Structure prediction request, 611 residues.
Amino acid sequence: MHGLGPGTIVGDRYTVQRRLSRSRDRARWTAHDTTLERDVNLTVFPSDHPNADAAMDAARRAAGVEDSRLVRVLDVGVQDEFAWIVEESLPGARSVASLLAQGGLPAEEVRRVTGEAATGLETGRSRGLHHQRLTPHEVMRASDGTVKVSGLAIAAALDGVDEVDPVEASRADAVALVALAYAALTSRWPVDTPVEGLEAAPHLANGVPAPSEIAAGVPGDLDAICRLTLNEGAGPLDPGDLAAQIAPWSREQVNPEAIAEQTAELPAQTAPVPSTAAPAAAAAAGRAGSAPAQPAPATSQPRMAPAPAQGGPPADPAAGASPTAAETVQATTTTAAKAPKVAKVGSFARAAADRAAHATGMHGADDTETISLPEVFQTAEEPEEPPLPLLHTGSEPPSGNQTRIVVTILVGFLVVVLLLGYCGVSSIGSGSSLPLGGSAPLHTSSATTPPATSPSSAPPTSSAPTSSAPIAVVGASGFDPEGDQSEKDSSASRVLDGDPSTVWQSEGYNSPSFGGLKKGVGVILDLGSPRTVHSARLTLGNGPTDVTVYAAPSRSLDGVSTIGEVQGASGSATVTAPTDLPPSRYVIVWFTLIPQDGGRYRASLADIKLS
Prediction:
């Protein structure tokens, strides 16, 4: 925009310093607030922009949302031909897009960044604000690990996004967050709308590959959420739903260097890869866009991506594209060691290189170093001590101590056998079963008739019922449809940890029936896809509780089917569903009468198991 540059004073207060980015109708600058003597960021656009008023209104509303995960809006204004929005400065912060220029992030850091961003957007959603323009450029990570989201509602308003249904906007933000996680795991952007500085994910017949097909060490829950959301139209419905599904996450930044130091101490389990891995990996990376890779099996302890090399971000975001696999695979033999080392490797190329290296290691014997048999089968200079001192291996006769020990063992064994044989013979004719026999008891001609009520003589009436398979739950959150839509969401995941000492509790109310404010509250469970629930076992708190368990097609009480209900219950309670219960994606634990706890009345749920 003409007339704006370093040294320009905006609003008689903000001195423009350095341009951060520019597009057709807006620009972002760093600036200095001469009134409060602090650094800020400026978003400047023409005052006659067709969406200027909407953007200014969105900025004012965003300024009223208080959440440490959202970039604060400090000021808005109009001066002559410019309109401007002032946001807090984040010294040393880098966008996720900039971080991905050095390769994928560690899996647990992806979980943390995504969870923090989702929690911030959920706060905005509770105030009626949605992002709708979220990409890895809008999610920042500060030098202390703090995650911040910029542009809440503002970017969409400036782009002229009309008022949309809140449910659709919430779902759009949830999908964008899942795409953010996908990109952070794979360094590939899975959505059709391109993002500057990120290569697009390959497209298959049924969508994009799962992250585990591109990168190693992807946790199973993140992999499933990405696949369901991006390819099957399922997954989280809003940012809070996603946060509940991927919780818990680390409060501190997951440091890849620390992970590398810890794993470096582990013993190696595989042999070095032959030097042919580099050309084979390059060929595999060249074919990666045309055929899907075989998915890597999920593990309970996912391996983290290697730490990125030290270095600053590229000057141009486009410079962050991943190099070819041939440039990044480091050779492991003397010949390949002469090749120059590189700073990073994209996760997609790395996965292809690993697979190609494995195949080459199996079949590339012609390129491996020849080792003679004497070098392999080397004998120790000192003979090893026999592992069992009682077994004699030398040529000299055994000692007297060894002979006495062996004789003692044999005599003891013989005595035990004789005693057992005597006991068995003496029990014949007594009507009891043999201690060592597997046959039925011997019956005698005794006239004594066993009692008719003997439980051992009664035939079994029925076999034990076969229990249904347990149903996995992908997420849990508080449920308050008649209130603020939130009911202690942060602790709802405790009902899934299998630990009865960790409890979800509702807010405190003035009476067992919620003070007349609402009919009930509860916890909603997300099964990931429609499932048929046969039973639910609840672990409730102390005190009489009325609770009903519903199967729900959506995150509401509309169209629910009753699985079962209990009244005046406490502790463990089980409800059994009718046989005609339809499959549903959600299960709602709905409390309608709650006990007293600490002067207030609260619903409590420690654990739930579905089958």
